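Late entry, written up from scratch paper. The run itself happened at the end of the previous shift, but nothing got recorded in the book at the time, so transcribing now.
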Amino acid sequence: MLLFLEDRLKRAALEVQEYVRLVSAAFHASFSRPVYRYDIVEQFDAMGVQSLTVVLLTGFFTGAVLALQSGLTLDQFGARPVVGRLVSASMIKELGPVLTGLMLCGRVGSGIAAELGSMVVTDQINALRALGTDPVRKLVIPRIIAGVLMAPVLTVISDFVGITGGWIVARFQLQVATGLYWSSITDALYMQDVYQGLVKPFVLGFMIVTIACHVGLRTKGGTQGVGRSTTQAVVVASVIILAVDAVLTQLFITLG
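Output as recorded:
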């Protein structure tokens, strides 16, 4: 039992060490040439435009269900008119960034791990090195840039769509006046909440992409290894998203 635990701890320490090395290499390569602009634009499309549908659906139904459930609860206290305040605060500060991150983790993170893992097991990474191309500069940096910049954009879209979904439920099912719904949002929304909702996606986007790249580049064992890497990337990144969100929330509460 002790030997098993020791082996697991050593593997975990090795994975953390290799992850830090990858992030460090990507950071240093970001400030030197060449810059693969076409790859960056391609990743913007893959992570941003092609992820828009799932983010829109997730945000809309989350806001609608949140308004429905909270409206029924607020009725017990005669506070149904403030349902907009609850929906906006929940979406902007927590649900928007976290759910968008989880959707990106399932769609983008798994794709990155599978793509890079396939390149590893088919020796395409070694071929890049043989041709004098740095795999980190060619494959990792464009994905990091796209992930860090597109996650906040998708989160803002998810927040807006979620609040709109909440308004539809509040207006047509809870019978809350439109003006009252939107005024409760503007009256209760503070810039600190907006900052919190915008900072989190930058961090979560970075974690999702870097973890997926790390797991993908360390794939072993042929096609079965690609499957394991894809699963591992999604699981690890999902847990990290929730953990980082908890840490950032506590940090914002402390600073605020």
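The radius of gyration is 21 Å.
(Scratch paper discarded after transcription.)
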